[in-house]
Amino acid sequence: MAGLTEPTGAEQSVRDSARATAILEEAGIEEPPAESVMVASRTEGGWRAAAADVVRAVEDTGRVKDVREPLPSADGRAALVGFRMRGAGDSTDEKPITEVLDAVEKVREGHRGEGVEIHQYGEASAGKWLNEILGDDFAKAEWTAVPLALGILLVAFGALVAALLPVALAITAFLAANGILALVSSRLHIDEQTNSVMLLMGLAVGVDYCLFYLRRERDERAAGRDAQTALRIAAATSGRAVLVSGLTVMVAMAGMFLSGLLLFQGFAVATILVVFIAMLGSVTILPAALSWLGDRVEKGRPRLFGRRGGGRARMRAAGGAGQPGVAGQAGSTGRRAPGGRISGALLRPVLAAPGLFAVLAAVAMLALAAPALGMKTEQLSLEQQMSEDAELRVSAEKISETFPGGPSPARVVLKADDVRSAKTRTALADFRSALREEGARFGKGVETRVYADSGVAVIDVPLAGNGTDETSLAALDTLRDRLVPDVLEPAAADGQAYVTGELASSTDFNDQLRDGIVPVFAFITAVTFLLMLVCFRSLPIALASVVLNLLSVGAAYGVMTAVFQHGWGDSLFSTQAVGAIESWMPLFVLVVLFGLSMDYHVFVVSRIREAKDRGAATREAIREGVRATAPAVTGAAVIMIAVFAVFATLSMQDMKQMGVGLAVAVLLDATLVRMVLLPAVMMLLGERNWYLPSWLRWLPRVEHGEADSAQGEHVEGATGSVVVAPAVEDETPGGGRDRQHVG
C-alpha cells in the first residue's frame, strides 16, 4: 500500500497560526519537541530530591538538551522540569523518547512510597502515543469492519459467493483509490486521517451499490426472469440509480473544496476517488461477474441457512403461483408483488394516516436535533482525544492544574530584520515585562529563543486556565489583540509577529471553518436539489430530498452534542464527554450524510417512480417501491451502522464522534426517514409528487424502468408466460403521467 505525502505544519494550519509556522519553516527552524516532568509532594519542598534525580536521569540518556532548573509551583509543593528532545520535531524515531520515558519511570519507581508523584507530558511523548494509537486503530477498523460486513451480507444473502461480491468491490475500490491518492498527495498533501475516512466511505458506497444491484438481479430471477434478462433489468434500474447516486455523492464531496482547509480538500479527493471507482465497478465489473457466475452466485450456502433466502430457490419454489401478472399478486402493473412483510406491516398505518405519522416523525427528528443548537466546536487537544483514564491524559491534566499553560503554551513568532538589534532586544524585554504586569492571565516559565542567523525569535507563553476554557481564550485574545501588536509588531519586519500554539491553531481553524461552512452548505444543498430535479423531473421530490437530508444531519448533530458535549448517555457508547465536538466534524458529517443518504433516497424513489411509470396509482407505487427496496436498504443500513459502530469503539475521540454520529444518522435515515417520513410526505402530496413547472419541461427525461418497457414485456415464468401490452399514457393535472396497461 503506497504511502501518503503528508502536509507541512503551515499547510495544516490557517490564518495567523499558518503564518507563524511558515516563518519557522522558511527559516529552517525545526523546533525540538518540548517535554515537561512535574514532581509533586505532600509537603512544601518535598519534591527536591526527586526533581534532582529526574534532571540527572534525563540528562544521562543523552537524548535531551536545554534542561531547565526545576520551577516551583505557587504553593511550593510541586516543581516543573522542562527540557527539549534532541533532533527534529517531526522525527518518526521513537527510540529517544522511549529512553527518556523509561528513565523517568525508574525515578518514579525509586521514590515510590515517599509521597511523591511524577508526571510527564510533552510533544514527543504525546506523538509516540498518537502513532501507536493510529496504527492500532486503523488495523482494528480494517480487520473488524470488513469481516463484520461480510457476516451481515452472508446472513442477508445466505450464500458466501453472493456475500463476497459487495465486500470484494468495496475493498478493491479502497485499494485502488489508495494507490491513486498516494500519487495525488505528491501535489496535494494528504493528512493520514484520510485513510480511515476513505476506508469508511469505500465500505459504505461499495457495499451499498453492489447490494442494490445484486438484490435487484436476484429479485428479477426470483420473479421468473432468465439470467440475461435479469441482468439487463438490473442494469436499467439499479444500475441507473447507482450512477445517479454516485454522481450526487461525488458532487456533494466536491463541496469540501470550498472550505479553504487542506484537511477537507484531502477528504474530498479521497472520497471522490473511492466513490467513483466503486460506482464504476458496480456498473461494469459486477454485472460481468454476475454473468460469468450465473447460478454459481448461490454457492457456499451454509447449512444453517438451508435453502432459505436464495433468489433462484425462491424462483423454483414459486412455481406457477408466483407468475407475474396473476390476479391478486401483481395488480395492474403486471409485476410480482414485492416482498418485505415487516416493511409492509410498518407501512400500512403510515399510508393510512400519512399526516399523523409525518408530524410524529418530524417532531421526533427535531427533538433529537435540538441539542445541536448549543453545539460547541474546537480542535480537540491530544489529551482530549485520549480516554479519561489514559496515563498520559492524567499527567497532562495534573500538570495544567498546577502549572497553567505548561504542557501547551501559546507560541509567539517574531520575524525581524536584525533580531540582535537594540530595537528588537528592547521589544522582547518590554514584552516579557508586559506579560508579568498582566499577572494571572499568564503562567510561569516564559521561554524565549533567538535564532540570530534567521532573524527569528520564538517566545513560549503559558496561558492561564486549562488551555481551552474562557480564561485561556481571554489570555490568547490579550496576546493577539494588544500585547503582540503594541509591543512586538513595531520591531518586526513588515509587522510579522504572530501567535500560534494549540489553542491559537484551534481558534483559527474554527474561525476558518465557520466562514467556510456557509459556501459548502449552499453548494451541497443547491447541487443536490438540481440533481434530484433532473433525475426525477419533480420539484416536490427535489425539495423533499434536501429537507429530509437536513433532518438526518440535524439529528446526527444533536446526538453528537448530547453525548460528547453534555455527556448524556455517554456510558452507553463507552466514552466520556469532552465538552466539545471536534471542529472538523460538523462539516464532514454534513457532507458524508448528504452523500450516503442519497444512496437510499435515489434507490427508493427510483423504484417508486418505476412503479408509477408502469401505471400504478400513487399509493400502490409508494407501497411497492418501499417494500421492494426495504430488504436492500435495511441490509445496507445494518452494514453501515455496524461499520460506523466499529469506528465508535476506536481510541481517538474524533473517531468515536464520527462513528456515533454517522451510525445514528444512518439508523434514523433508513428507518424513520425512509420508512415513515418519505412515504408519508409522498402520500400527502399525491399526484403533486410529479409536478414540474412548464418552464422546466426542457429538462432531460431519465428513465427509471426497463428501457424497452414501452414495447411490451415478455416474462418467463416457471410454468408459462405472460405478455404485457404497451402502456397508454394519460396526462394528469399534476404534471405527471398515469399509465394504464391494457391486456
UniProtKB/TrEMBL annotation:
Region of interest (Disordered), ranges: 304-336, 722-743
Keyword presence, Protein biosynthesis: no
Membrane topology qualifier: Multi-pass membrane protein
TM ranges: 148-177, 197-214, 241-264, 270-293, 350-373, 516-536, 543-564, 584-605, 626-650, 662-685
Protein location: Cell membrane
Keywords for the protein's UniProt record, in alphabetical order: Cell membrane, Membrane, Transmembrane, Transmembrane helix
Annotated Basic residues bias: 304-315
Residues annotated as domain SSD: 163-292
Record Gene3D superfamilies: Multidrug efflux transporter AcrB transmembrane domain (1.20.1640.10)
Keyword flag Lipid metabolism: no
Domain of life: Bacteria
Matches recorded under InterPro entries: MMPL_dom, Mycobact_MmpL, SSD
Pfam families (UniProt xref): MMPL
Name of protein: MMPL family transporter
Species name: Streptomyces tubbatahanensis
